[in-house]
Each structure stands twice: as C-alpha cells, then as structure tokens.
Design a protein that fits this description.
binds Dihydroxyacetone, binds zinc ion, alpha+beta
Amino acid sequence: MKDLLSAPFMAELIRTATNMYEHGWDERNGGNISVLLDEAEVGEYLDLNRVIRTVPIGFCAPELSGKLFLVTGTGKYFKNVQYDPAKNLGVVRLAQNGTQAELLWGFSDGGRVTSEFPAHMMSHVSRLAVDPKNRVVMHCHPSNLLAMTFVHDLDERAFTRTLWRMCTECMMVFPDGVNVLPWMLCGTNEIGLATAKKMQTARLVVWAQHGIYGAGRDLDETFGLIETAEKAAEVYLKIAHLPIKNTITDAQLHAIEAHFGVTARAGYLE
Ligand code: 2HA
Ligand code: ZN
C-alpha cells in the first residue's frame, strides 16, 4: 500500500484548505470540504475492507451508497489541516443504502465528519445529476459575499446580475448565476435539503448572513468559482455607496456570451 498522505487528492485538499484559511474565508472551525474519490485510486492507499468505525448520519442518500469521500471534520480548524491531516480529515464511505458513514481513515482523535455533512452529501446528489463529473462541494465564509447579504436584495436574479456586472470575468466563470437561501439554521437536514435544491440550478449557493457553497469538478475549479464571486462582492462593496458613472450593460454581457461560448442563466439578461 502507498502512503495516503502522498496521494495527489490528499495533497490538493491540504493545499486548498490552507489557501482558504489564508484568504480569510475559514476563521476558527468555519468551512468544510468534501471530495468524491475514485474507488480504484483510493484502493492503492487504503484497505477498503478495513472499517475503523461506523456512524449513523441522520439522513438517507441512497444515490451515494458505496461512494468514498475525503471530508473535513466537525470542529476542526482549516489552519491546522496541513499540520495534522489525519486528525482533521477523514476518508468515509457511505453504506447501508446511504444511511451510515464508514470511517476508513483519519479523525484520529475520535472526531466525526463536518456538521454540514447533510448539505454536502445532498448537494453532491444534486450536482451529480446535472454533471456526472462533479466531485467537490466546498463551504466557507468569505467576508464580502457575507457582507453583501446584509445590504443587497436577496432575489437571486438581482444578486446574480449585480455580481456579473462587477467584473467582466464573472459571466465566463458562473454563467449559471448564484442562488441564494435566506438565513436558516446551519448544520441541519433542512438547510441541507434547501441547499441541494438550489444546487440543481447553480454551482454557487449563498447562505445569507453566513457564507457560501460552491460545487465543481475539482478543488481548483470550485475554489476559483468562490474566489471570483467573492472578488465581485468586494468590488460591489467598494462602489455601492458611490455615484455610479459606468457599468457593464446587458448588451456587453450578451457579447461575452457570444464571444466566449457561455450561456447566461435563462431569463437573467434583458
Ligand atoms: O463547520 O462553517 O456552517 C463550520 C461551519 C458551519
Ligand atoms: Zn459555515
């Protein structure tokens, strides 16, 4: 068996969690990540028949039964992931028709999967139905997006259109837009279900007064999605209180669509 800490997916997760912390997106134990792993690849590093412990997960995701995830732990700090991956991360397999998680590696201090496991797993189900190559769900607390939810209309079309107009790149990076949930209690199946429903139509879901969820094919793409939306929110907060003299028009957004071969969310442009 090869050393799991040398696996590319492990190195990439450690690098990403560290980078997210350094961006100020994951204070204290804020944020969580889950990555759908390839069973054959994990089999090079772990004995897939050796289950350390089994825990009920409090919801049912039969679509994910048998699937393996690398996931951050509840109460764990992103800033510490690089120093002790085996304590802060775990590899789990959903079992028993998606009602239990079998721990195959990690959470060495007796820890458990992220408190947002329902939102993560339900979002994986939603995104896999749209894109079978989706592997990553990421949650964090970027300051500008969070701040924006206090001063901007939470209507999804309006919120998306504002972000699209803040930087030219936004339309290319998230033409599917940003969905928005009102404030809800986090760590519950209810917010998990609501997030997953929003994930059916966009890869970014803002949790008002809390943070954001992103989904994508790999960690770089998902990080980049959140990074781009956060940059746009930062620009918005710099200009929102000033007299606006120029903007990106809908005609210009259509020009981006045509030139770069992207399609804006239906009905979001005039
Ligand atoms: O895991 O970010 O939403 C800590 C959180 C909860
Ligand atoms: Zn959070």
